[in-house]
Structure formats: C-alpha cells, structure tokens
Amino acid sequence: MSNILMVVTAADALTLSDGSVHPTGFWAEELVVAHRELTNAGHVIAIASPGGRVPTVDPGSLSVETVGDQAKVDELAAYLRQIAPELAHPLALSAVDPAAYDAVVLPGGHGPMADLAFDQDLGRILRAADTAGTLIAPFCHGPAGLLSAVDGTGAFAFAGRRLTVFTDEEERTGGLGAGTPWFVESTLRERGALVEDGAPWTSHVVRDGNLISGQNPQSSEAVAAAVIDALA
C-alpha cells in the first residue's frame, strides 16, 4: 500500500484568447479512472488543491456530446458522487509535506492552465518529489502543473526530461481551438521538456525515470496502470 497525492485544479474558469471566460475544472474521466484504479489496487489517495478549495468538474466532461455515451456519463457521475466527501475537503497544497507520499498524480482538464501552472506551492512539492525520486504522474493537461516547478533563478526542473501531454494538434482540433490562450505542449517544449507525441486521441504514455506522463483522456487507464506497476 502506498500513499498517493492527487493534485486537482481548483479553477472553474479559463480566460480565452479573445478575452471571454470559458467554464472549466477537472476532467471527469481522468480523475475518476485514476482514483478508481489506484484505490482498487490498494493505495491510499489524498486529494489536494490550491488553497484547499473544492474542485469543480468541467461540465463538458459530463456531457453526452463530449463523452459520447450516456451510460459512461452516468458511471462517471456516480463515481464522483461516491467520492464527493473527499473532493469536498481537499488538502491545501501549502500544507502538503511531499515526503509523506510515494507518488504525485495530476489529472487534467483545462483547469491546470488557470492555476496549477503558476502555483508556487505545487512547484515546491514537485521539486522536492523529483529530487527524492518520488513518482510524478501528470496526464492530459495535468503536465501544465509541471511548469510551476522552477527554482529561484527560474530554472525549470523538468528541462531535458521526456514526457507527453495533450498535444497542440489535439487542442486545435478537439480542445479549445482558436480560443486557446496558450498551448501546453508548445510551452513545455519552450521550457526545455522533450515532448514525445503519440497519435491524436489514442492512449500514449511516456516514462522517464520517476516521471510518468499521459497524452490525453484516452491515456488515463494506462497512466494509472504504469503508476501501479511502478509502485509494486
């Protein structure tokens, strides 16, 4: 049994490139699949968010139009109701001791682009976790949170590391499109990360030492499986 910190965005809105405000939050499938699979494997999950604020689910991630199947929407919504007490009382990132956890997992949704990417407390956690060799597993837009991991000189902790993330192509064709305020893949590349893209909308996981990353919602199960395998 391992202790896992699941860092969840607390943002419920993202300002788009045209100045309009787009509702956002965490992506239901990503949080549900990761939480369910890791819990079923016997691990203990602590949910944390910026300021300990209650996370909001992205409404689009529970729409039949996006998910494609009412039964799947119902399944995701039912699991979120099941873990509602955990989501209602997250730890504040400022109070988290990284040494208490064996893995840090960051599901996506566009929310991390609004808060986690710039959160100094998350940056502290990720830098300490990486130094200790603790597993770090962001996926889809979760890798936006990695951008918070800079030191006092502005050096990016994950420069030179292999990873994957929701691609610019996926953002343009099935994400926010022309409204995207900034592209996570391009920004990670600019900061020195070695981004490895898989085919759009297919499961793709990259492992570089203690860093396990997934490209999109379709990668949720594979990321959880990789974390479970690495913790075994």
Describe the structure.
By secondary structure, the chain is an alpha/beta fold. 32% of the residues lie in helices and 17% in strands. It is built from eight helices and eleven strands. The chain has helices spanning 28-40, 64-67, 70-82, 84-88, 120-132, 168-174, 184-190, 220-231, and strands at residues 3-7, 13-15, 21-23, 44-49, 91-92, 103-106, 135-138, 162-163, 194-195, 205-208, 211-214. The strands form four sheets. A five-stranded parallel beta sheet has the order 5-4-1-6-7, with helices on both faces. The chain has a two-stranded antiparallel sheet with strand order 2-3. Strand 2 (13-15) and strand 3 form a beta hairpin. Helix 1 packs across helix 3 (70-82) and helix 1 runs parallel beside helix 8 (220-231).
List the keywords.
232 residues, two-stranded antiparallel sheet, 8 helices, globular, single chain, 11 strands, alpha/beta, five-stranded parallel sheet
